[in-house]
Amino acid sequence: MERWMQRAIRIAVGSALLGMLPSLATPAVAAPISLKDDRGHTVTLPDVPRRIVSLLPSLTETICELGDCAKVVGVDRFSNFPMSVQKLPRLGGLDDTSIEALVALKPDVVVLGVSARVIDRLEGLGLKVVALEPKSMNDVQRVLGKMGQILGKEDDARRLWNRIDGHIAQSAATLPPGARGLSVYYEVDAGPYGAGTASFMGEILTRLGAKNIIPAELGPFPKLNPEFIVRADPQVIMVGQRNAAGLPQRPGWPAIRAVKNQRLCVWIPAESDVLVRPGPRMSEAAALMARCLREAAAGPVPLPTVPFNAPPGGMR
User: Fold this and answer.
1) 184: which strand partners?
2) Which of 45, 210, 236, 315 is least surrounded, with the fewest CB atoms within 10 Å of its CB?
3) Which residues contact 170 (CB under 8 A, 6 or more apart)?
């Protein structure tokens, strides 16, 4: 009797397992990914992309930080972090992207900035294009979410934003009272163009307790009249090594407190890359700005000893 029952149980279990095999063997159907980019265009991808071209450094860094650097098959000339992307085909910049080289890479999607001139041509060739252009911290959070959606890593993107936000708060908490409330001019490029209160750089400065001399109504990165900066008389100036040469000799600038008291924070190229890219390394940018404010509160800020050897380029 016992043997009969054991045999019956084995037959029943075997039949059940056989009944499950068809469902186990059925492949999962890929779900399309649909999102609205910063042009307001709805882009639909048939599946999570396996081959990606990124034409904006902050987007390249975001993809890699989310763990999908291996999917990036081509980048713009300014994408240089992490180190692994420096080995990829470089496809030019905003105005001179090599269309032929890009198409040859057979990307599933191209991610780039809204101001890229190649968008219409790429779409005309049937390529999927997602244009994303973060300028404020809210933009960065939103773009992280969009990239998480594209990569099928929305939870990872949320965790990444929380980590960035938390590290910025930590940098602010480390500043002594004397480093708070200093007035700051941040020059992002010759022109001069400044980082306004409405930019992600300006928002970081605000979170660090600094007073940006450029009001929000002038926009994120306005071109300024040099006299405006002289009249504002900032206590601290932040500027990249490329644009620092000759700054103290500009008309009227020797009288600015930051120049007179030698409170110029001059970023070497590697630091400038961190500071001007609205992406995963914003927490590092906050730490660099906090270091500047801390040093400026204590006295003259030491100039970098590293010689300037960066290739030509602008904010990107």
Assistant:
1) 212, 236
2) 315
3) none
* Rounded to 5°, angle at Cα 62 from 287 and 86: 95
- Please state the φ and ψ torsions of residue 52, each to the nearest 5 degrees: -125, 135
Q: What is the pLDDT of residues 264-282, one digit of tens each?
A: 999 999 999 999 999 999 9
Whether the CB-CB separation of 194 and 214 falls below 8 Å is answered with yes
pTM of the predicted model as reported, rounded to 2 decimal places: 0.86
Q: Decide: 268 and 217 in contact? Cβ < 8 Å.
A: no
Per 3-state DSSP, the chain is made up of helix, strand and coil in percentages (nearest 5) of 45, 15, 40
Q: Residue length, the chain?
A: 316
The list of the chain residues with pLDDT below 50 reads: 1-28, 312-316
Q: What is the structure's pLDDT at 305?
A: 81
Question: How far is the CA of 139 from the CAs of 55, 136, 198, 199, 254, in angstroms?
Answer: 18, 5, 11, 10, 37
- Give the C-alpha separation, 211 to 180, whole Å: 8
Q: Distances in Å between the alpha carbon of 129 and those of 39, 100, 279?
A: 11, 16, 19
Q: Which residues contact 137 (CB under 8 A, 6 or more apart)?
A: 200, 203, 204, 278, 282
Place of tokens 């480093």: 179
pLDDT tens-digit series, residues 232-242: 999 999 999 98
